[in-house]
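Appendix B.2, paired examples.
Example (i):
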Amino acid sequence: MLPLERRVVADLTTATDPEHRRAVEAWVEGTLAAMPDALRLGVAAESVLFSAWAALRRPADLHGLIRWLDRSPVSLLRSYPRLFRSLVLFGELELEPGGRR
């Protein structure tokens, strides 16, 4: 998982237990690694571009980047935070203590 992706996952994870947070992060990382290469390449390319933009504009403001992407008129840009929100949510539910897994 790329550094920006790791930051986004950490920011979106709602679990408070550090062990559960690490498990969710590992689950998301495994899911990203299991993506078809063409899809993963696109997500990785977006991560690299957004990392550069964030570093130049506001290195500490991850929330600002996510808000900007959410409001973008370009659907491809809006899909980036949506993907990570979905992965984190599925990971939290899948790994929830007492869950089905």
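Example (ii):
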Amino acid sequence: MHVGMLKEGIGVSPCTGRTLMGMDGRTTLLIVGIAAALAQPAGKPAASAPLPAPAAEVARDFLFAFARNDRDAIQGMLPRRLENLYGPCPFDRMPEVVKPRVDTRTGAVDLRGKMTDPGLPSKGTMILRLVEEDGVRAWRVRQVYWYTDLPPEADIPDASPTAADRRQEPALREAAIRFVSAWLGKDYQAMDRLTFHWWEVPRKPPKWVTMKRADLTGRPTTLDGLRVDFVAHLTMARIVPKEIHGNLWLVQEEGEWRVRPLTFTFLF
């Protein structure tokens, strides 16, 4: 099982900035979500939960907007209150934050700890982006995901390749700890300051990917809101069919269903 924060969109690997998965040997792209290429959930099927029709409509609209990189539509479906935007922390205490590594503007740390939802695995990785704010460079959290097995094609830094990258490792680890500490303490304003808001970054629509439909299933969760598992049916390069499995979390706010962007993931 993989549960995590959303990647930046469709078209380019958010970990390295490289395009992946060759189409014609020259044109390449990748559907990206929580990890660049993650295995589908294994084990016995999860129990289902009721999925109200209005929630299903919002979930589908969000998936279609994400597939075409429509950031304006995505922002219109996000919770307005920070406590709903981020939701409860999936850890019940501070996890171990280990193996920091940096590759230029992208960093990763591994997380090990007990989860509040028994259906979630205890292994995870946090991806951070190096940004510049008021002339000062700082690490901001772009996503967190949890998994049982990580396939070799997942596009995540394995190690810091240069001395300059290695010098960034302490700051990277400290940024990850500050983010989880704020999450555990329900300090959503601090979390928001420490987050890379991918949904505010414009992206061009993908040229070679079309989403045809999405099959949805409601799932029970202890993390508040409503978990929705999906199977997105895509067409690659106009002729190649592909199914993407994933999940997202919805929460009701002022009578409307809204999508938490940092707990949305594609599972490849």
